[in-house]
Amino acid sequence: MNNKNIVLACIDGSALTNAVCDYASWIAQRVDIPLKLLHTIDHHHEKAVTTDLSGNIGMDSREHLLEDMADQEQEQSKIRLQQGKAVLTEAKERVIQAGITDPLTRLQHGSLLESLADIEQDIRVLVIGARGKQHEDQENEIGAKIDALIRSLHRPILVAYEAFKAPEHIMIAYDGSEAADKAVDMVATSPLYKGLVCHLVCVSKKDSAETLLEQAASKLLAAGDIKIITASLQGKAEEELCAYQSTHNIDMTIMGAFSHTRLHDILLGSFTHKMLLKTKKPLLLLR
Fold first, then answer.
1. Domain boundary among 138, 164, 190
2. Cα separation of 33 and 3, whole Å?
3. 267: CATH
4. Domain presence at residue 112
């Protein structure tokens, strides 16, 4: 398989699984590349043993207890395996109904990050839900692994928050950085964005914002078949961008991820993390 040749949908059977499948299907069809569904079974989280075996029980009793625990663990693994196969089967049926002819599936043992590291070179875009099963009822939170995944994977990542809506209006959060210029170049060259309305939005106190926007807009206009709207805003970036999303019916936001140093993130908080928490619309993050 050629490098960067698949859209990868990471699914876990949570409430956002359908949205992940639908966004991945939309991308795969517009870009005309294969779609792969990935479900991981992380056995590390199954082995939380709280029983204290150091008490005054006999050797035979301890051996029987260990055997029982091993049997329970094996049974849990079988259940996880069956559940994983069911999740993949249902997801495969959904993407086929969406128009994907030959979806690929992969049931992987181990952590999600480890699984992605093995196939990163094949990924063109990764799609994942903002919350997995453990956090699906916590609308103001994001999945515990999202930050780590975005930092470790050097591929575009689409984070889904709600039921799929085919994007018509997209927004590039533009600040003149290398990552922001990468987003502009990607929108200008990819078939994914053809025919869409692109809002190029800069939140800055600098007088140079208008100049930055003009330069970026010219690149997009030169590509053709994309309608461009520019906006220069002042204020807290995450608040202004999310307000703009709502006011202008933005369906998807494209932005660079974690462009500052880790020390900056620790001291001031990460803009990427703030956007992940505050937005309710899909975020396409670029490293």
1. 164
2. 12
3. 3.40.50.620
4. yes
Q: Domains in the chain: how many in total? A: 2
Give pTM, 2 decimals: 0.85
* Torsional class of 94: left (φ above 0), alpha (ψ -120 to 50), beta (otherwise): alpha
Q: 127 exposed, middle or buried (CB, 10 Å; 0-12, 13-18, 19+)?
A: buried
200, containing H or E segment = strand 197-203
Cα–Cα distance measured from residue 53 to residue 57, given in angstroms and rounded to the nearest whole number:
8
Residue of 174, 187, 36, 147 lying closest to 100 (CA atoms): 36
CB 191 within 8 A of CB 224: no
Lowest mean pLDDT: which of 45-49, 83-87, 141-145, 179-183? 45-49
CB atoms within 10 A of CB 60: 8
- Selection from 166, 160, 98, 158 nearest residue 125 by Cα: 158
- The pLDDT tens digits for 31-68 are 999 999 999 987 654 444 444 545 556 666 767 677 76
For 265, the domain range is 166-287
C-alpha span between 140 and 27 (Å, rounded) = 26
